[in-house]
């Protein structure tokens, strides 16, 4: 076995900067750190038990992703969400999800369909329990699985970025209701198309699903 093959079998080791990055990103995605909120670097270092070096590395990475903003006199703050751009975000998602669906259909196996069905069962349980936070996380995981199945890292990264933008938008512009039942039903259509092995049908189901959610954002809350 070559050194490269041997190294490829080793589990990835996360640095302190990676762990700080993941913690901050999760806090931003969940709304624990809200848009416009200042990030106290000293307090963060104490809370996470790390020095300021991994904190700086993680914040630079999040700045490059547009999630944090660093200014000379105001320090590091969570980036605001541009409400005027949300329609463009959904248009981009519609195009990308259609492509992701087509490619995932070409690569789909029993493992992928089983994983998606497991997510659907968990979503139905959360729907019955009115667990909106769990539903949001499970919905994200559903789309992550499909994006990973596309076989292209760039599509997985774009999917992640767009989903996060929508999550952050919903923090500042919450709706009194989210039609999660329709989301689950639309997921079922995607899975059925995957079972049929029809890339065109999967692509259309994914585009229709995203378009449906876009219309929901444009509908005033009750």
State the helix count: 10
SSE pattern, N- to C-terminal: HHHHEEHHHHHH
| Major sheet attributes | 2 strands, antiparallel
Rg, Cα atoms, Å: 19 Å
Low-confidence stretches: none
Brief sketch in words of this structure:
With 222 residues, the protein is mainly alpha-helical.
Layout of secondary structure:
Layout: H1 3-8, H2 16-30, H3 41-48, H4 52-64, E1 68-71, E2 75-78, H5 86-107, H6 110-128, H7 132-149, H8 153-172, H9 180-196, H10 199-218
Antiparallel strand pairs: 1-2
Helix pairs in contact: 2-4, 5-7, 5-8, 5-10, 6-7, 6-9, 7-8, 9-10
Using brief descriptors, characterize the structure shown.
222 residues; mainly alpha; two-stranded antiparallel ribbon; 10 helices; 4% strand; elongated
Describe this structure in words.
Helix content is 71%, strand content 4%. It is built from 10 helices and 2 strands; from the N terminus they run H-H-H-H-E-E-H-H-H-H-H-H. A hairpin with a 3-residue loop joins strand 1 (68-71) and strand 2 (75-78). The longest helix has 22 residues, at 86-107. The protein is elongated and about 55 Å long. The model has no long low-confidence stretch (mean pLDDT 87).
